[in-house]
Structures are given as structure tokens and as C-alpha cells.
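== Fold encoding ==
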Amino acid sequence: MSEIKDLMNKLDQFIDERNWRKSQNPKDLAISISIEAAELLEDFQWISSEEALQKNKENIREEIADVLIYSFMLCSRLDLDVKEIIEEKMVKNGRKYPVPIKS
């Protein structure tokens, strides 16, 4: 089993042990992703990237984890394969943004 599927299974188990699944509908999970992404942005607000990383690296790590956790939870809820949807999007982006031909 892939590492992503293992991680998804751990996350599902964590959620099920706490009986959270009933309150985690797609709309609220999408909202939560946005909220956590905004909290991540706060770590960078009004300062350079370098300064943000120096001052807020631990919180940045935690906020990125929150964004990923809610994203994975939404994928689980919608029965989406994380690896598959990322690979499909990369193919689509590759067609949209081809590598420039070197002259």
C-alpha cells in the first residue's frame, strides 16, 4: 500500500475514533481548508518570506499540516484518490503550461 493510502487510513481511523465523520461534510471541510490557509498566510503577512520562516517556522509547519489534513479529509469524504487527482492535474497543467523549447 502506498504511503499516501497509509496516511489516509491513519487519518480516517483518527476521525472515526472520535466520531467526527458525521459533522464533516464537504462544504465545511472546504471552508476549513480556506480558514487554515488564511492562518498560514498570517505567518507571512507584512514580513519577508525569510523573516517569516525565521520567526514562524513551527507554526507554518502546523498550518501546512492543517491544510493538508483537511484536504485529505475532503478527498476521503468525496472518495477521491489523492495520488490520482494530483497526477491528472499535473498532466492537465503540463498541457496548459508546456516546457519552453530552448533555442
Summary: Residues 3-84 form a domain with the Helix Hairpins fold (CATH 1.10.287.1080).
